[in-house]
Amino acid sequence: MHNLDSIFKPRSIAIVGATARPGSIGREILNNLFAYEINGKVFPVNPRHEYIHSTKSYPSVEAIPDPVDLAVIVVPAAHVQGVVEECGRKGVKGLVIITAGFRETGEEGAKREDAIIEIARRYGMRMIGPNCMGVIDATPAVRMNATFSPGIPPTGTVAFMTQSGALGVAILLAVQKLGLGFSYFASVGNKADVGAMDLLEYWENDPDTQIIAMYLESFGDPRRFTELSKRITRRKPIVVVKSGSSAAGARAASSHTGSLAGLEVASEALLQQCGVNRVSSIEEMIHTVAGFVGAPVPGGNRLCLVTNAGGPAIMAVDAADGHGLQIATLSGKTKADLRAVLPAEASVENPVDMIANAGPDQYERVLDLVLADDGVDIVIPIFVPPLMVEPLEVIRRITKVSRARGKAVYSVLMAEEAYYARIPREIERAVPIYRFPEDAVKVAQHMNRYRLWRARPAGEVRVFEADTERARAIVEKKRRAGGGYLAPNEAHALLDAYRFPLCHYAVVPVGADLRAAAKGLSFPVVLKVVGETIVHKSDVGGVTVGIADVGALAEAGRAMEAALKRAGVFERATAFMVQEMAGAGPKAGNAKEVILGVAQDPKFGPLLMFGMGGRYVEILRDVAFRVLPMTDIDAREMVRSIRSFPLLEGVRGDPRVDVEFVEESILRLAQLVHDVEGIAELDMNPVIVTTDRAGCRVVDVRVNVV
């Protein structure tokens, strides 16, 4: 028996604060329990009433003669603590606290919430809420609706969790209109005890749940979420609306990586790495869930459109472009068969345009032929009803053929409002219906991404040989000194401990002889200013490349000092670095600049970044982020996800650079920040990548320690 069974599968429920007063939450919850025909005992608790709805009422939980599994509490906030204590003494194991007025209201409310958490833990009770709208178990064996939402939710295979009670009501009503059914519904409110992780774990192996949908405002424990969702999404899709993406959560940063790592970057990276379908709105979530419920996961990404109107089909093609879907090429046999059943003016190319007067028979025949084509994985039939055609009969035929063929079909019906309400009532297990072609295409994209995730290898977290103790000692020494940026020799030593290839260099104080620094280095060289607070060195004239000899080096030094003074930053310079120029020798090949970086997210931990590097990284913003743990498959996908990846693969006659070196470098960086605590920000920019690994070098590195 799972410890959440006391909440979702109780044999007896006490409604503390039940009442017969019209409009009260206590009355609505009691009504919903009876209307849903719960398979269990219900005990109203209210000392002012002997009977409520012809059901005996009890003055307290302890006065109930039978054992009580679940208590739903709807009393004023000031009385909740006493009720929770009483429930503990009674032996109640599950609590749903509807009452608001806790942590969400401020300091005093937080104290009340902490008090009930302590009592619940002391007695071993699990708790949903406070400040929630309740829970539903719609499975046939339980039939419990302990919410105050209007309507009777249908039974189905979707488990849904929300942190917002108001949105929960809206979703319940919207889903009822579509005929989609729930297995479970949970409004978790303040998440004082039970949260998203507990529910994921509970629903993971539940036979009545095939799809999990969530509205999240925060993750709780991101590491646990990652572990659970990676495992679950191999068998069950998870659809998430994640809110809280405003710029108000952005933090100040002094590195390229930190400035690019906005508030939502970590959330997006985590969800992507876990195979979760993230959606941008409640409407998109409902559309996506409907797609999972009403159609199989497609076997590929080849899309065919069948329509009686050209305009909507063109919109669908435009929406599909560049989002992982491929417009299918119909076979010669399919096109010949289509010509035999369509009028001469119809188009048998994809999109298949049957012209405006196409009715149920044409949709049935054409859809059957298209679905029989081995080169088609997904079909979006689009129907704009003319006056002489009954829309529901067309949807009925589309449903019949799609069920027989077993392929993914997402139908678009652009009809009068009344028809959408009739479809779930009059057509059993109808195909997913969308009002506009872009919505159906978006769902097809989500389905295709989920298909790719399930087929994707799990990957492995590689471990490279490294001098971990040396790296830890470098960072710990800086931490004891109060933190800040590592000196160049310390930063290079840190990377050297993890076997990153570095350029030879020498550092000299401001005013020292640069020519002496060049001894032992091979020309051409680069001259750079060193200063903890000088982030964008190129902007202030602090970088000179391609210095050919000692004389040119001395001249470059004088010119750089003058430039730094003009920019008003010369006093912030602590030294100059003379460095061999990467990408200039015989191993250079088609040298490209990339950036690797790390920023610490307060919730998610180390956030890794990769992208095209150099001066314009923050302007182009062509970067990708991932969270730990990082597998070899994650690194491979990360590199290929940026817009400029074709430049690394080689375009217009340029040779391919060593992409595998980049992937390995990402994994080495992930290992470094996993092993060594105290790295707040780290930038390697640029990293020069050539066709030959022997020519690849980390050119510049900044490491901020806290």
Would you kindly provide a written description of the structure presented here, covering whatever features stand out?
The protein is of the alpha/beta class and 706 residues long. About 1% of the residues have low confidence. It has 24 helices and 32 strands. The chain has a seven-stranded mixed β-sheet with strand order 9-8-11-10-12-13-14, sandwiched between helices. Strands 15, 16, 17, 18, 19, 20 and 21 form a seven-stranded parallel β-sheet that branches.
Give the structural class.
Answer: alpha/beta
Query: What distance separates the N and C termini?
Result: 46 Å
**Mean pLDDT, all residues:** 93
Biggest sheet strand line-up:
9-8-11-10-12-13-14
Low-confidence stretches: 246-254
Question: Whole-number radius of gyration?
Answer: 32 Å
Total E-strand runs: 32
The profile of the biggest β sheet is:
7 strands, mixed
What is the helix tally? 24
Query: How would the global form be characterised?
Result: flat
Strand share of the residues?
A: 15-25%
Q: How much helical structure, as a percent, in the residues?
A: 25-40%
Fill in the keyword field for this structure.
single chain; about 700 residues; alpha/beta; seven-stranded mixed beta sheet; seven-stranded parallel beta sheet; about 35% helix
